[in-house]
Amino acid sequence: MHGKWAELQRLLQAQWRQLLTINPSDRPWQKPFAAALASGLPLLIGALLDRMDFGLVSALGGLVFLYTPRTPLYHRMLTVMASAFAMIACYTLGLMSHFLPLLMMPTLVFVTILVTMACRFYGLGVPGSLFFVMAASIGAYTPLEWEQVPQMVGLLAMGALLACLIAFFYSAHILRQREPDPVPPLPVPTFDFVVFDSVLIGVFVGLALALAQALQLEKAYWVPVSCLAVIQGASLQAVWNRQLHRLLGTGIGLLLAWGLLLLPLDRWSITLAMMLLAFVVETAVVRHYGFAVIFITPMTILLAEAATLGQGPVAALIEARFYDTVLGCLVGLAGGICIHNARFRAVVGRQMRRLVPARFGG
């Protein structure tokens, strides 16, 4: 018993040290500032026109800026423009699935598998497929009529285009101050890395949404997003750390969001809060993921709910987001255990290979 207690103490101490570890960062302050502009300028225009709902959709497209790598200018712009196309496509599919509730879960599974495969095949770095899936998920829970679909897609496309322009001017400026990183070689496109992992991630993201629907959670867009954020860890330990950081960060972030939503917010203060939160998140995320989640939580709540704030009790909204996060993290942890289990990979992978033509197996 003494040996087991000592081992438990050692594990807890290691986990505590991991929670308190702050990573070094050489990220220039201009990048968080540009990220805040990419999401904030559409909101400023929406506030000016008194159409915050339009501004929020365009601000979602502004998240494309976060895919700007540290490579030469030509590679940066190719990456950001390809990411903009993917964001528009995912959001469009999500919007269309809103009108066919039975296809909402299969659509999200398809989107997750496809964008995860593309991100892994082309070596797209952090945040990977996260924001593409988030766009599809938010689109699926956006209340609208059929004739509004082109308008909403156009708004997101304009936000993504603005993000591409900001990425260009930011890159042109920052490359005068520092040398770009070399373009990394594409990863080896093995079956396990590109196909197997992507399919499993998609299945568990779909399972997270299916559970949310079975539990009749209202606007459960955050459940599959939380699942994806956790399951993408490179190892089981990374998955566990991600889950712990996300749960603790979300818990504190919900308290922050609660206090923020109790303030008499108008369209201008919402815009300022979004820009400030985006700046803090981009500054902190490379240093400590859990700390960044504290500010990601109110930012995403504002991004998805700002247009309807005041139409329901704040406590109910905060409680719903907490349950969404817990459910998504638990499903993500279960998926991470399966993905990183050698026996599970051998059994399921063997069956999956039979469904894939030999020339695609890798």
TrEMBL record:
Keywords: Membrane, Transmembrane, Transmembrane helix. InterPro entries: Memb_transporter_dom. The lineage of its organism: Bacteria, Pseudomonadati, Pseudomonadota, Gammaproteobacteria, Pseudomonadales. It is a multi-pass membrane protein. It is found in: Membrane. GO terms for cellular component: membrane. It comes from Geopseudomonas sagittaria. The chain crosses the membrane at residues 78-96, 102-122, 152-172, 193-215, 221-240, 247-263, 291-310, 322-344. Residues 207-334 form the Integral membrane bound transporter domain. This is Fusaric acid resistance protein-like.
